[in-house]
Structure formats: structure tokens, C-alpha cells
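Structure first, sequence second, as always.
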């Protein structure tokens, strides 16, 4: 999804935190999208040609590049405590976007039946649940879960677009939905209880991840689909702004159970870097 903000808007006060830049050597852009308990980060980087390569980065800084065989573009978005990685890739054979699971050195395609495009966002820590979004033959984005090889589709109430982006140990889902006016909001789904999430004063909100303490991270804006963005975390209904110092925009994409947050920010020169934010 795409979100924007206006810096004239007064945001909830950000708490004191430590911000660290995460860059893949030689990359023109780095996106840090997920972090597990061992502090291994999953994400992707772009080269000078704009081609994406997925990666994992350990706490000591060791980087493993991820390229799905036969793909022209690979993007990692989720990692769990078993070091299973999920994301999506563009096939150089059919030109379509497919989801993938990388587990113990092997890549597996993840596509709900009838999917024209698949984006896999997250895998649960125990590896039993994969969540994401797909475009069906109707041309609409639907949320989906994959449990034990069984796919289940979900559409938010009155939504024209639905994406699942995160799931925690309790099975609470988070995601994004779009209404008839093309306004995007976040949501939580606990069982059958759907709750929309909107950052105060914004006209567009994404909820990207949720941890086992029900802490949520995402991004928000006031300029529709336009850059720049600001990140946030939300705990017990309280929002806290996350903005990388000196940046022109920040996106929060993932967090672990210790409250460490990963994402990306844009510097004053317009370069996108990955980030790690620690409490």
C-alpha cells in the first residue's frame, strides 16, 4: 500500500528510542521488513537497475541474499523464529507476481487458487500460518491465510481491497482495507471481530505487523497516496509516532516481541535506507 503525511499535522509525541541504519552494501535502496527473536532481519534491496533481491541479516551483520530461481525480482517481507522467510517474486517465465516460502534452503511457491497476483506478508512464529493478499479473477485484492496447505479468503466488510499483513501467537490478524472512496485504513481481526484502525488526524493508515503483546506498527498519512510517510506504533489503543531523525519520511514494517521495530526511511538526499528502532 502507499501512504502519505503532512508535517504540519501534530502527531503524538515520540518516545526516546535508538535508531540504527541498515544498508546492504552496494544497494541503492534497502528495505528492512521483518525481525525475529534472534534479531535476524528480512527485507530486500535494489541495485542500480532497480532490480530487487531479498536478504536476511543476522544480528552480527552477516547478509544472505535471497533470489527465487527463475525470478527477475525477489522481495522478502517476513521471517519467523524458525528462520522461515516469506515474500513475493516476479517470474521471468510468466511475468506474474507469486508468493514464496524459503525454508531450509528451498523455495516453495505460495499462490491461492485462481490468483493473478500474490503478495505474502508474514509467516507465524510456529510456521503454521502464512498470510497475505492476492488478486482474483475479479480483479480485486483479497486477504488470505494458508494453514496446513488450505487457503482461506477474507474480505473486510464493505471493502474494495483487503490485505492481511500480520498475525500473532493468539491468531489476531492485522491488515489493510480500502473503502468505496479508495481510503485505506488498518484493521485487526480477532476471530470474527473486525476493528478498523485509523491514526489520529490521518486520512490513510496501514497496520503492518502485530506481536504477541498486541503491539502494532504501521504507517499513516494525510496526503492520500502521496509521499512522504510517517511510522507509528500502537499499544493498548495509544499511538506513538516513529520518525527516523533527519528523515523526510519513515515506514514501520515489522516488530518482534521485545518491541524492536524495523522499516525504512528516506534521507534528505532522497535515498531509502533500512532502519532498526530499539526501545
Amino acid at each position: 500500500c502507499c501512504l502519505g503525511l503532512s508535517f504540519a499535522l501534530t502527531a503524538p509525541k515520540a518516545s526516546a528510542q535508538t535508531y540504527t541504519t541498515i544498508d546492504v552494501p552496494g544497494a541503492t535502496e534497502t528495505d528492512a521488513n521483518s525481525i525475529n527473536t534472534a534479531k535476524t532481519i528480512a527485507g530486500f534491496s535494489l541495485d542500480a537497475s532497480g532490480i530487487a533481491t531479498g536478504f536476511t541479516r543476522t544480528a552480527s551483520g552477516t547478509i544472505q541474499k535471497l533470489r527465487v530461481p527463475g525470478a527477475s525480482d525477489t522481495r522478502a517481507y517476513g521471517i519467523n523464529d524458525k528462520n522461515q522467510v516469506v515474500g513475493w517474486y516476479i517470474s521471468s517465465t510468466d511475468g506474474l507476481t507469486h508468493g514464496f516460502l524459503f525454508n531450509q534452503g528451498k523455495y516453495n511457491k505460495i499462490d491461492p487458487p485462481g490468483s493473478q497476483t500474490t503478495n505474502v506478508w508474514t509467516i507465524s512464529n510456529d510456521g503454521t500460518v502464512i498470510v497475505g493478499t492476492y488478486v482474483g479473477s475479479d480483479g480485486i485484492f483479497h486477504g488470505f491465510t494458508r494453514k496446513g496447505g488450505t487457503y482461506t479468503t477474507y474480505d473486510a466488510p464493505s471493502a474494495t481491497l483487503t490485505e492481511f499483513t500480520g498475525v500473532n501467537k493468539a491468531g489476531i490478524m492485522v491488515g489493510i482495507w480500502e473503502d468505496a472512496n479508495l481510503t485505506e485504513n488498518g484493521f485487526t481481526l480477532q476471530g470474527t471481530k473486525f476493528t478498523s484502525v485509523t491514526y489520529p488526524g490521518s486520512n490513510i493508515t496501514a497496520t503492518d505487523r502485530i506481536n504477541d503483546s498486541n503491539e502494532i506498527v504501521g504507517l499513516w498519512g494525510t496526503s492520500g497516496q502521496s509521499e512522504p510517510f510517517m511510522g507509528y506504533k500502537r499499544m493498548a489503543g495509544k499511538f506513538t509516532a516513529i520518525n527516523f531523525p533527519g528523515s523526510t519520511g519513515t515506514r514501520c514494517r515489522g516488530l518482534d516481541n521485545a518491541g524492536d521495530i524495523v522499516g525504512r526511511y528516506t534521507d534528505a538526499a532522497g535515498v531509502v535506507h533500512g532502519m532498526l528502532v530499539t526501545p
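Margin note: The chain has one domain: 18-267.
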